[in-house]
Amino acid sequence: SGSGFMLNPTWSVLTSTTGYGSANNSAAQPPLVTQYCNGSRVPPTCSAQDGCAGPHGYGVPPGIVDASTPNPVFTLTPSATVDEGNNWINVSWGPLSLSDDSVTGGANGNYGGGNPLGNYALTRAINTIPISQPHPPTDFFGNARPEALPAGDNRFDPGAVEFASGARPAPPTLVGIAPATGTAPAPLKSGLTPDVVPVTLTGTNLAGARVKVSSSDIRIGRLTVDATGTQISTTFFISSSAIPGATTVTVTTPGGTSNGVTFTVEAPSGTLSFTSATNGTLSNDLGIPHLTFTTPTPRAPVTSVVTITNTGTGPLQITQEAITVDSTDFTLAGTTCSLTTPLAPNGTCTVSITRPAAHKLGGFSATNGGTTPDGFLGLIAP
After folding, report:
1. Bridge partners for 360 per DSSP
2. What is the pLDDT of residue 29?
3. Of 71, 190, 354, 374, which has the maximum CB count within 10 A?
4. Rg, the chain, Cα only
């Protein structure tokens, strides 16, 4: 075209390699899986005994009616006729099938059951490109490139189709799922904001694999497969509205679907926190919250209203409130916390605790289901 620009194909089959610098190109006729036939009137499988005694295709011999033998392979049944000069007309036609029509096949023994004609796939004879050359992990049809068999194959075919030698690649096997750090997987949680979890899937034959998750609440990020085909790195994006429960991860390749790994999306949990008190000071001693009452003058019993806040991302259901230490002198004077209705995230309720006139140590606990208190408040009456 005079533009001065020239393509530089490598490892390619060309009509002529003249002018191209790569010594890896080939001008030899590529070996196709089956002979190419593009609508010829004389198919390559038609012989003289089939009625192809020349460039006429399948035909009815002149002067032989359709009921006479030998009949051609394709039994077109024209009525015997003559032209204006009283000459018999020889009817002929080209191939009517994309497969080898000289071989019977199928449940009813119909013709056309042979190998495909015009199969453009290249045979293993041209399996020449080293695996070290950049290439996609699958061919046009999603088959593994290079093919999985024979063992140790380290070359692949040019073109869009990778020739399969007859056996399907072994299906993938998914062994485990873990965060990218390789430690045990942390639970996935639904909540107020999406949860982003980097994960690594390990197994065999994972090259060209596709990861599927049964839950519509989980989206999968970009997949990265290592060179050995044993590890996939990706990211799960868990929707804030994800429904808690078991979710299964499966890996799919053209060879089939592997076993899956099931993990659990946990419900967002509430967190019971003591956040303020009307009489006294809240503090944290050795990881345990304490309320130190203010001592009146003269000494007398005093009540402090303590605010409980749900600082978690899920509902908090308080099922029990009790004075757990020195219940004789400290008194639970009242509460606005419901033992039947969950406290929403950032929701609050209060408990009123009365301290004795004398110096005492006590405790208050609130339980969010189960038998172990989820919130404990040490009580100090100086």
Report:
1. 381
2. 78
3. 190
4. 40
Please check whether residue 374 is in contact with residue 366, taking contact to mean a CB–CB distance below 8 angstroms. yes
Rounded distance between C-alpha atoms, residue 159 and residue 228, angstroms: 24
Contact 190, 239 (CB under 8 A): yes
Give the number of residues written for the chain.
382
What would the two tokens of residue 264 be?
A: 């659990």
Whether residue 289 is preceded by a cis peptide bond, meaning omega within 30 degrees of 0, is no
Burial of residue 51 (number of CB atoms within 10 Å: 0-12, 13-18, 19+): buried
Q: How many Cβ atoms sit within 10 Å of the Cβ of residue 162? A: 22
Total Cβ atoms within 10 A of residue 156: 22
User: Smallest Cα–Cα separation from 292: which of 348, 367, 373, 360?
Assistant: 360
Select from 316, 192, 215 the least CA-distant residue to 264.
215
- Using alpha carbons only, what angle is made at residue 70 by residues 68 and 73, rounded to the nearest 5 degrees? 115
Structure tokens at 49: 């005994």
Round to whole Å and give the CA distance between 5 and 256: 44
Amino acid found at 97: S
Q: Which residue has the tokens 């609440």?
A: 217
pLDDT in tens, 327-374: 567 888 999 999 889 899 899 999 999 888 776 777 777 877 666 666
Q: In a 3-state reduction of DSSP, which class is residue 232?
A: strand
CA distances from 157 to 31, 59, 164, 241 (A): 11, 40, 10, 47
| pLDDT value at residue 338 | 92
The pTM score is: 0.40
Q: Under a CB-based contact definition with an 8 Å cutoff, are residues 336 and 306 in contact?
A: no
Element (H, E) at 276: strand 272-277
Place of tokens 């950049």: 134
Residue in the block written with tokens 């190419």: 36
